[in-house]
Amino acid sequence: MDRHLPTVGSRPPAPEAEPVDLAPDELEAEIRRLKRERNAVILAHYYQEDELQDLADHVGDSLQLSQAAARTQADVIAFCGVHFMAETAKILNPGKIVIVPDLEAGCSLADGCPAPVFARWLEGYPGHTVVSYINCSAQVKALSDVICTSSNAVKIVKALGDQKIVFAPDRHLGAFVAKQAGRPDLVCWQGTCIVHETFSERRLIELMAQHPDAEVIAHPECHEGILRHAAHVASTSGLIEYARTSPKQAFIVATEAGILHKMRAAAPGKTLIPAPPDDESCSCNLCPFMKRNTLEKLYLALRDLRPQVDVPEPVRVRALRPIQRMLEMS
Ligand code: 13P
Ligand code: SF4
After folding, report:
1. What are the tens digits of pLDDT across the range 20-38?
2. Does the Cβ of 236 fall within 6 Å of ligand 1?
3. Of all atoms in ligand 2, which is nearest to the CA of residue 288?
């Protein structure tokens, strides 16, 4: 395929959000009113603040949210997640308005894989099929053959048979997929997630000793030092489902701690222990990008219909194909 990149501008810096003088219950009522008035749907990822998840029409993992975006009849999609997720919704829905609470909610994986550098890197791998994790920019998607998420990456790579493959941008997910799919030759871009990268194996082992009956469950963005202790490795929705259905009563959960909100609801009475980051004093198991979104910013976005996420048409058309291919293969 043609790996030359259409020229696009970078994301403009977001202006400061104005203060909102509403009590929490008034704020929620206003969001519900604006949602009806705008015929909007609110999509939220499991890593969002609890109150945003509670207001959303759909809460899900990256694949489920893409599927919800692909089938919505709403005029406006309010995406409580990070930028690449809202971009994916826009690529699937060019005629709809896609708004985000905070335009600066980025992602270390997407930001660590700039499209021009990626395009040059790909020149070193002619004849390879490019599989990109959905945590990447629209421009990187436009350079890819098929997109995947953490819930379908192994299945998609297996379905490609013996084709030569490059995988981007998460090296830990890439290593996990290579192992699971029996593809030691997978060529991986060396990106990481700043949240999953900080979990500490030493502190995890200490925690396992304190809770010998607890099972470790982990997201595949974690490094091998964590994954080697995990009884189950899956996407956010896969981890919630496992906690719900497993006969085990206690879990050490190695992913962003926002997941605990829905996991508690799905597995009431079970003990859920967040996996420890390396530095005890930091909140490194919270994604600083996801946590930029607030109820106040969602209210302003629905009121003003901005900030909007747009994707230049030449990029959108090229990014759509690998996303559709993923949706068909899922
Ligand atoms: P999933 O919800 O698809 O497992 O992805 C996690 C993630 O990192 C989102 O940024
Ligand atoms: Fe990106 Fe990691 Fe935050 Fe997910 S948790 S949005 S992969 S930085």
Report:
1. 999 989 999 999 999 999 9
2. yes
3. 3
Question: At which of 188, 216, 238 does a domain end?
Answer: 188
Pair (182, 207) in one structural domain: no
Does 87 share its domain with 134?
no
Instruction: Indicate if the pLDDT at residue 49 is higher than 50.
Output: yes
**pTM exceeds 0.85:** yes
Give the ligand whose atoms come closest to the C-alpha of residue 194: 2
Q: Per-residue pLDDT for 7 more than 50? A: no
Pocket test for ligand 2, best of 62, 193, 237, 293 (most atoms within 8 A of CB): 193
- Structural domain includes residue 220: yes
Distance (Å, whole) CA 303 – CA 23: 17
CA of 30 to the centre of ligand 2 (A): 29
Least confident of 18-27, 54-63, 102-111, 117-126: 18-27
Q: Does 62 sit in the ligand 1 pocket, CB within 6 Å?
A: yes
Q: 66 is written with which tokens? A: 């893409």
Distances (CA, A) of 138 to 70, 77, 85, 88: 16, 17, 10, 7
Residues 6+ apart with CB under 8 A from 297: 17, 101, 102
User: Which residues sit with their C-beta closer than 6 Å to ligand 2?
Assistant: 47, 82, 107-109, 135, 193-195, 221, 256, 287, 289-290
Instruction: Identify the domain containing residue 260 by its residue range.
Output: 196-274
pLDDT-based confidence at residue 320 (cuts at 50, 70, 90): very high
Q: How far apart are CA 320 and CA 68, in angstroms?
A: 16
Probe target for ligand 1 pocket from 221, 233, 241, 261, with the most ligand atoms within 8 Å of CB:
221
Kindly report the number of other CB atoms within 10 A of residue 216's CB atom: 23
213 with 261, same domain: the answer is yes
Amino acid identity at 292: R
Is the pLDDT assigned to residue 241 strictly greater than 60?
A: yes
Q: Tell me the mean pLDDT in the region 154-161.
A: 98
CATH number of 239's domain: 3.40.50.10800
Q: Quote the ligand 1 centre to 40 CA distance (angstroms).
A: 23
Distance 26 CA to ligand 1 centre (A): 31
Q: What is the DSSP letter of 306?
A: -
